[in-house]
Amino acid sequence: MTYISLGFYLLVLLILVLYYAMPLRFRWVVLLIGSITFYYLACREGCLLLFVTALLSYALAVELQSLREKYAASRRGLQRLILFLALLPVLLPWLIVKNGNFTGLVWAVPLGISFYTLQTVSYLVDVYRGRTAAQKNPAKYLLFVLFFPQIVQGPIPRYEQLSKQLYEGHRFHEEKFVRGLHLILWGFFLEFMIADKAAIVVSTVFDSPEKYAGCYILVAAVLYSIELYADFMACVSISQGTAGLFGIALADNFKRPYFSTSIQEFWRRWHISLSSWLRDYIYIPLGGGRKGALRKYGNLIVTFAFSAVWHGSGFKFLFWGMMHAAYQIIGNLAIPLKNRFYGLLGLSEQSGMRKMIQRIGVFFWVMLSWIIFRADSLRTGLQMIKKMFFVWNPWVFFDDSLLRLGLGWKEWCILLLSMFLLLCVSILQEKGMDVRGIILHKAVYVRWALYILAILCIMVFGTYGFGYQGQDFIYGGF
Known about the structure:
mainly alpha
């Protein structure tokens, strides 16, 4: 069962009916039963491992809370030991799955293991630090771990952000409900109109890299950058929209990252819940930028190395992480040189042209790293980057060569128009406009005309409209 399957929405409908039919104080129980049902249907084999690790982390968090209340600042060694014992059963399955290559254990891999692992780690560490009180009710804790709209692909919630919303129960709120439907529809648009179509070209090139060079790789790399963004944001939008139907607000996970003017800013806008997790539980505990430049750069390298391991095993992921660490370190060291360069061009810090140049530069460097990320191996990725730079074939844009990459001219038109719409919406949001709010304040007949038109366009021109099989969400593999 996936977020784009009919079965998922039938289950959501059933949970919604039961949720709003129950008294407020029991509505969290409906969410718990619905979440367990979803997880069992989506990943039956992995349920046992998830429940065992959840039970252990629950019990050890309660023990940490008890020790902290009893001994306060004393006996920190015992508290650290309990924390280590709590983290071990949570991290060990993830480490084995991600880096152990134990094929005999594949059958037991829980769905969304990377996401709920970080979620549980943050909860345990926050209890240890005294920032969060341990949940005493095991059923409520299990709901926090299993909440079905976000367990598969995030965003990665903090306990203090999500727990109260889960447990207090919500009355039906029409605007929140409709805003949730907007997000679900937007997620379908991003997946079927952009991500799945771009994936066809991307797969054609990346699955046979020996056949393509120059501008072919450039086009595939640009489209993969867009595909990955649209795919992940689609799933997060559907997650947020589904939670919104119950009156629950999940944190934003993207803030138009390709509008960033530096790599550092990019990571404040891309996969925000992961970036903030890495900042709060890896970078800052290591010392952050408080202990000199060399220590800061070392902390950046360690942080991105952890991010690389989180995404997958193999040298290509480690190299991808080190690329981003290098981007930030070199970018920081080059600030005086860049300021002098822009000064010679007469471009102030607020200049629109300067921001445009910076944004193009960020997209280019990030795109190079995505080539490594997507390629079958590090060697293949480096070879593709080399061939992109050293083979000159711009005529492929004019001789119909791109039409032989899996999309006909009609599908190319739909893809480009959809990307243009995404750009327009992103620009409006970047200016602070509430696009969903604007739609909500239109007359009823205008709103419904827009809804019907959007649904018809997705059905007719989206992935299934052209007979392709929908792609799995990319980050479902992490």
